Give the backbone structure.
Amino acid sequence: MIVDCHTHINQDELGKFKELLVEEKLQGIVSNTTVEEYLQNKNFLNDEIENNKVKLSFGVHPWDADIFNPDDFIEIYEEVEVIGEIGLDNKWCKVPKDIQERVFVRQLEIAESLKKPVTIHTTGAEKRVLEIIKNFKMKKLIHWYEDDKYLDEYIKEDCFFSINPSYELNAVEQVVAERVPLERILLETDGTESLKWIGDGYLQFQYGFEDITLDESLYLLKESLEYIAETKDIDIKVCEDKLYENYRNLLGGNF
């Protein structure tokens, strides 16, 4: 089973996404950043959630840390399987660092109290994120990691890492795939909009896509799976099964 452990689904993609889940071509975790988005996805994908074909996550993204208060969303945190995406961003974000950090730490506290895993955004703040998460014991998925300087320390913290299709252009993604133990690797797309953004349309050009829809996204997940299998020098089916096992492990076997 192919698993996209971190994706965002646009409203006009929900029907197709549901189809892929029903046809058992895909499983994964859909990230939500607003109450409206969460309720929409929860209601539309209710049957698939009940049948463990998809999980929902919810979190205050660092870009929104000056807008939302995590304590307003306790009921949602209690409902979802994963808290995220949360973290810090010193590259793309204008929210003051102290506000980002306060919101990040509060969500880690909530996740720890609820015994739930977290998906973490680290862009440009890898060192500080590492310092903070050392104080928390929940399972942690590091999303789209971009700084190999601290990679070994994150590995020592027993973090999971999600490999995305930018590996063809991103040397750090290649290092992550090589150095992170297989039992801590997962796959992600971060949604079709992120796939279009990689290399200013590189994936469309490289693969001859007119556009990147969920069909192309699934194709790219399979390409990423093949890349991991080659990097770890194992059979692709063995790799697929191991990554699915990792997904279950991240979620605590809650199926």
About this structure: Strands lie at 3-7, 27-32, 54-58, 82-87, 118-121, 140-143, 160-163, 185-187.
